[in-house]
């Protein structure tokens, strides 16, 4: 029995995609358009999008949050797995990037499920709390500016219900979190959040090595 996760090289990654990926055609087209854009590295991979869809179904989620939408791939995958009455509140600061996603959301017929809010994510989440929305969300996905990860996590923890799930992306930061000599603001912020969630008794947690690292935290 191996003591650590198997290293996934390009050949094995291709095998995984060839034998497990069920990506909708419209999601594939959005992902491929995004791949040609500046900042394409912010896009989650298709296997992660599929995994998030499974999480939505497993939790029976109807109301979800997303902090960091970029070109809308994760919001699209979430919306496609939500029930007809489901909703994702998607937070981003860019009209330009999210305008790409809007086209695909409309084509997929899920625009009515996605409430896009342009502005700083922490302000949007705080507004929801001020409006009495604490404990009313089933799922939250955090994939925005890393320096504010701790703030997003704390606000999301208030907004999700007991038994609700928070998914935090990029928690391995391409391995930088394990390199002590790397001390930029983003890396420090991710390290601090990783350490915080590790000892946070308010949640049950696990860090998965999918993509750039994905932490799942279930609110107790």
Q: Could you please describe the fold and organization of this structure?
A:
The protein has 220 residues and is an alpha/beta fold. The protein has helices spanning 10-20, 25-35, 46-59, 73-81, 95-108, 121-130, 149-159, 185-198; strands spanning 63-67, 87-92, 114-118, 137-142, 160-169, 203-208, 214-219. The protein has a 7-stranded mixed sheet with strand order 3-2-1-4-5-7-6, sandwiched between helices. Helix 7 links the parallel strand 4 and strand 5 (160-169). It is globular. The two termini are 31 Å apart.
Question: Could you name the key traits of this structure?
Answer:
220 residues, alpha/beta, single chain, 8 helices
In brief:
The protein has 220 residues and is of the alpha/beta class. Helices cover 43% and strands 20% of the residues.
């Amino acid at each position: 029995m191996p003591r650590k996760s198997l290293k996934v090289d390009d050949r094995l990654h291709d095998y995984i995609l060839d034998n497990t990926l069920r990506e909708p055609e419209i999601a594939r087209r959005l992902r491929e358009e995004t791949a040609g854009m500046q900042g394409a590295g912010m896009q989650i991979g298709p296997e992660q999008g599929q995994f998030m869809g499974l999480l939505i179904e497993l939790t029976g989620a109807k109301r979800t949050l997303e902090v960091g939408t970029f070109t809308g791939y994760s919001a699209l995958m979430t919306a496609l797995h939500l029930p007809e009455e489901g909703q994702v509140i998607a937070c981003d600061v860019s009209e330009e990037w999210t305008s790409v996603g809007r086209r695909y959301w409309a084509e997929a017929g899920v625009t009515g499920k996605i409430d896009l809010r342009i502005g700083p994510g922490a302000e949007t989440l705080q507004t929801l709390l001020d409006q009495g929305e604490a404990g009313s969300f089933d799922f939250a996905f955090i994939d925005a500016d890393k320096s504010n990860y701790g703030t997003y996590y704390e606000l999301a923890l208030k907004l999700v219900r007991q038994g609700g799930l928070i998914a935090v992306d990029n928690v391995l930061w391409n391995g930088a979190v394990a390199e002590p000599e790397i001390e930029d603001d983003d890396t420090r912020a991710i390290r601090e959040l990783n350490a915080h969630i590790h000892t946070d008794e308010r949640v049950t947690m696990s860090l998965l090595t999918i993509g750039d690292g994905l932490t799942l935290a279930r609110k107790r």
